[in-house]
Design goal:
Layout (H helix, E strand, L loop, with lengths): L7 H11 L16 H19 L1 H9 L2 E3 L2 E3 L4 H10 L18 H14 L1 H20 L2 H13 L2 E6 L15 E4 L5 E11 L8 E8 L12 E6 L1 E3 L5 E4 L2 E6 L10 E13 L6 H37 L23 H33 L3 H36 L2 H4 L5 H9 L8 H13 L5 H17 L6 H27 L2 H36 L4 H19 L1 H18 L6
Parallel strand pairs: 3-6
Antiparallel strand pairs: 1-2, 4-5, 5-11, 6-7, 7-11, 8-9, 10-11
Helix pairs in contact: 1-9, 2-5, 5-6, 5-8, 5-9, 6-7, 6-8, 8-9, 8-10, 8-12, 9-10, 9-16, 9-17, 10-12, 10-13, 10-14, 10-16, 13-16, 14-15, 15-16, 15-17, 15-18, 16-17, 16-18
Length: 596
């Protein structure tokens, strides 16, 4: 079975030193947290995920979910593990205290999620989707709807789903056919079929609250005619008890590449009674509250699975002996050297390590922006944080899962043939994480969203806001000789990003198809630049700690060494990506269909 060591020291470094969350006194509720509380919570999650969730990962994958007599049965051990999960209160961490939550910042909850997805991605999806449903109702639901559902969703006694996709429509939600017909008491009869519904049915909780996109009879055409409805598996009586089964069911389980422990269902709604979430025809706005949170969660999946794959590949590389180092024998007491001496193995491991640690810092920054958007006492700064979080959403979903998948493939490669068989767990990591590049909007859609909506819609105002932060950081540290290797890499990446942005802005005015043609390499360029910014900040924080004197000099020096590798290996890739944007986009947009 794969091993896992929760990166608790890295969490401490990011939260306390890099992001200084305990100094964020202008954020509501942050005065109630301290390092001791945070450490205790994250240690508790680490214990639960390592002791309970990780042992179920491989067995859940092999057994999978089963559909029996119209009900989904989860793999052996899942039901008991989920009960312990809610009994321990892990479902409540970042939820509103008014409904039984602990009210912790998202920046802490994000790292709890990383540990859950690293140890058992399929299991973690059940509470993950529930939190998304909670968020949508919490932000957009009526008071009556909140009272009806939120306490049970917060506790985890009930779970939630999101129902968007239809077989004929895919990403184009304007084409959906699911109907909502008004019935008595302000309720609606929902009829239609949805596919690819994660956690659509299971035996973990007594009720499931489906959030369903559908169209009212008077709906205008396109996405402006979509409404959102809360549709429970079992009706909820006025006293909160459960009534009869609603008119919905899981008609099939999808046969899929990975995440076998999660029930991916075809859901049929046959006049199921539901209630409106938010305003009529404003369903996409409400659903995006859930989707954007889900996109951060999917990015965390990319990080979590990448990290557990890296941890195991590193152990294997140290223990597996094969061949000798090109520079001569390194381990003469053995018949061969460990494969860690070989240059390409070292390259793959360092690529994974530098990606994982830089991404973890970026995820923390993204979560802190979300906290600032919700909790900051200054509305101007809250608005700026919300804009930055929106700008970076395609990065934390699209770029991170692209590169996280590649990191898992590299980890599998280190195992050689052993990585391809089931025994070592690497092939499951590759299969499981592959979906992260597809669901919650494919990564091509994320790239298009980044360029077409986030970048051009406000004429680059939010990008300029972030660029000014980067330039301010560079100026602040420009006189520090120790920072030169890191600032040089950051400045190169920032320059390439600025030039690529200008090229796209000019080209799009002449030919809008250039946006789609350039969007994917641009997203990769942006992601690498974003991590360069995080690694430069990590370097500055580490240098300050070493200068001040510390008994953990090895920890901080390792950060500096990894930061330098990132700039030398990852950072230099921005130049080729910029060239790719500038040199290939026009041909992609205009290539004759007859020549395909």
């Amino acid at each position: 079975m794969p091993i896992y060591q929760a990166p608790l020291r890295d969490y401490q470094f990011i939260l306390s030193e890099l992001l200084s969350i305990y100094d964020q006194t202008e954020l509501a509720g942050f005065d109630e947290i301290d390092p001791e509380l945070t450490d205790a919570i994250l240690q508790g999650v680490a214990d639960f995920t390592t002791d309970i969730m990780l042992p179920l990962n491989a067995s859940g994958d092999l057994e999978g979910c089963q559909l029996k007599d119209g009900n989904v049965i989860t793999p052996k051990g899942f039901k008991e593990a989920y009960q312990q999960y809610i009994d321990d209160g892990w479902a409540t961490l970042t939820c509103d205290p008014e409904y039984g939550g602990q009210g912790l910042p998202e920046v802490i909850g994000t790292f709890a999620t990383e540990m859950k997805t690293a140890t058992n991605m399929a299991f973690a999806m059940y509470p993950g989707l529930t939190h998304g449903a909670y968020s949508a109702i919490h932000v957009h639901g009526s008071d009556a709807l909140k009272q009806k559902y939120l306490a049970k969703l917060v506790s985890g006694e009930w779970t939630g789903t999101m129902n968007l996709t239809e077989s004929h429509a895919g990403t184009d939600l304007a084409l959906l056919r699911t109907k909502a017909t008004p019935v008595a008491d302000g309720k609606f009869a929902i009829s239609g079929e949805k596919i690819f519904i994660s956690s659509g049915d299971h035996d973990l909780a007594e009720n499931i609250v489906h959030l369903v996109l559908a169209k009212l009879p008077d709906a205008p055409e396109g996405v402006k005619g979509i409404s959102l409805f809360a549709v429970p598996k079992f009706h909820v009586n006025d006293d909160g008890s459960l009534g009869e089964a609603n008119q919905l069911c899981a008609s099939a389980l999808e046969h899929k590449m990975g995440i076998h422990g999660n029930s991916t269902c075809v859901m049929v709604f046959d006049g199921a009674v539901g209630e409106l979430v938010g305003e009529p025809h404003q369903g996409l706005k409400a659903m995006f509250t859930m989707m954007n949170q889900a996109r951060l969660g999917v990015g965390i999946q990319g990080l979590g699975v990448s990290d557990i794959a890296y941890q195991n590949a590193l152990v294997y590389a140290k223990e597996r002996i094969q061949g000798r180092a090109l520079s001569g024998v390194k381990q003469s007491q053995q018949a061969a050297d460990s494969i860690l001496v070989h240059g390409d193995v070292r390259r793959m491991l360092l690529s994974q390590k530098s990606f994982n640690e830089g991404t973890r810092a970026l995820m923390g920054q993204q979560a802190l922006w979300l906290d600032q958007a919700e909790r900051h006492s200054d509305p101007v700064k809250a608005k700026q944080a919300a804009a930055l979080a929106a700008l970076f959403t395609p990065i934390v979903k699209g770029f991170v899962t692209d590169q996280g998948f590649k990191a898992c493939v590299d980890a599998q490669q280190i195992y050689g043939g052993h990585g391809y068989i089931n025994e070592w767990g690497m092939e499951q990591f590759v299969r499981d994480i592959r979906i992260a590049m597809i669901y919650e909007g494919t990564n091509g859609v994320q790239a298009l969203d980044l360029v077409g909506r986030k970048l051009l819609s406000d004429k680059g105002a939010t990008l300029t806001l972030w660029s000014d932060m980067v330039k301010g950081f560079i100026g602040e540290h420009s006189n520090n000789d120790a920072m030169k290797p890191y600032l040089a890499g950051l400045m190169d990446a920032a320059t390439d990003l600025e030039k690529a942005t200008g090229f796209i802005a000019q080209s799009a005015a002449k030919n809008p198809d250039m946006i789609g043609a350039a969007s994917m390499p641009y997203m990769q360029l942006f992601g690498i630049s974003a991590l360069a910014w995080m690694w430069a900040r990590i370097a500055a924080t580490s240098i300050a700690a070493l200068d001040a004197g510390t008994d953990e000099s090895d920890f901080y020096q390792a950060k500096l060494n990894t930061a330098e590798f990132y700039m030398r290996y990852w950072g230099c890739q921005t130049r080729s990506l910029r060239k790719q944007v500038e040199m290939s986009s026009a041909q992609i947009a205009t290539f004759d269909e007859a020549d395909f």
